[in-house]
Amino acid sequence: PDPFTGSGLLSAVQTGVAASHALLDGVSPAAYLRQVRALYRGQLTTSLLIRRLLTLGWAESLAGLLPGSLLFRLTRPRTPLQCPP
């Protein structure tokens, strides 16, 4: 997870809980990593793009065009990691 999105602690807790369940369920490390990468791919790609726009000086010009709620959704995982009870 990316500190730029402001959700690092939440991501750490989610992936830690999911890792413990994967370990207890005998899920391979490779399968677990695929799940985590798929979950956070959109979030990390969006934050990379935002960082790039900031370095190019375009973010300020575009800020008024994008609602904050959209940016929030784009920088969060679409669905939480599935952890059995």
Give the SSE layout:
Elements: H1 8-25, H2 29-56, H3 59-63, H4 68-74
Secondary-structure element order, N to C: HHHH
Average pLDDT taken over every residue? 77
The count of β-strands is 0
Class computed from helices, strands and strand pairing: mainly alpha
Radius of gyration computed on alpha carbons? 15 Å
Number of helices: 4
Shape type:
elongated
Strand content: under 5%
Helix content estimate: 55-70%
Alpha-carbon distance between the termini? 24 Å
Low-confidence stretches: none
Description:
The protein is an all-alpha fold. Helices cover 68% and strands 0% of the residues. It has four helices and no strands. It has helices at 8-25, 29-56, 59-63, 68-74. It is elongated. The mean pLDDT is 77.
Structure summary:
This protein is 68% helix and 0% strand. With 85 residues, the chain is mainly alpha-helical.
Keywords:
mainly alpha, 68% helix, elongated
